[in-house]
Design brief:
Order of helices and strands: HHHHHHHHH
Radius of gyration: 20 Å
Strand content: under 5%
Distance between the termini: 77 Å
Number of strands: 0
Largest sheet: none
Length: 215
């Protein structure tokens, strides 16, 4: 069965072709790639998968299972990359970056050691960070079974919200994309503001240190 009123082009069209051709595994593949390449928005793929389930292209259970499996698979690849990178390489790269201190990384590691499980679980529900959080989990060698379970649970919640919204809204699934997109943009703006503030503080501290040394 094919989708009625389906999108014809762009990411939505590509995701539609995957789901129509491969069913649940196609949706899972799209979400796995979304984890590895955040510019591919789950805010499009997941509601569209729910819409496809409502049209009978796949079952709702299949949609939730395969998209969650895709999330876990993509996150596992990023975890593996973080594990290969390791703490020593991370510190070596960090030491070469401008405007950062080794103490910043040390504090980050301590924070992740204390709050890493919550970061992995809740991070799965935050745009962009749901991909990035897998890397420090690998660097810090979070036990793989714990990482996979937390990733699966967090992903299941996020995926269920968007898939079910697309399922219930039917051919108005784009409404989910609109509101989820606003949330994603808000997160990115807050992140950019925090980054600018961090750089400004570092530049101010460096200037004060230089002035103090000159005097």
């Amino acid at each position: 069965m094919s989708l009625s009123q389906k999108p014809a082009d762009g990411i939505a069209g590509w995701a539609t072709d995957l789901v129509e051709t491969m069913g649940g595994p196609g949706a899972g593949l799209a979400i796995a790639l979304e984890n590895l390449f955040p510019p591919l928005p789950s805010e499009v793929v997941l509601p569209l998968t729910g819409f496809a389930a409502g049209q009978g292209v796949l079952t709702l259970g299949s949609a939730l299972f395969w998209t969650t499996l895709g999330s876990v698979a993509g996150a596992a690849v990023l975890y593996w990359i973080g594990m290969l990178l390791g703490r020593d390489r991370m510190h070596a790269v960090w030491a070469k970056l401008p405007l950062v201190k080794t103490s910043d990384l040390d504090r980050t590691e301590k924070w992740f050691a204390k709050h890493g499980t919550k970061a992995v679980f809740f991070g799965r529900m935050v745009p962009v960070f749901r991909s990035l959080v897998s890397v420090p989990a690998g660097v810090e060698r979070m036990p793989l079974p714990v990482f996979l379970v937390l990733t699966a649970l967090g992903s299941l919640i996020w995926n269920s919200v968007l898939v079910l919204a697309g399922y219930w809204l039917g051919d108005r699934w784009q409404t989910v994309e609109t509101y989820a997109g606003i949330f994603s943009k808000a997160v990115l703006v807050l992140t950019a503001v925090a980054l600018v503030a961090y750089v400004a503080v570092r530049l101010r501290d460096r200037r004060r240190t230089r002035d103090h040394s000159a005097s």
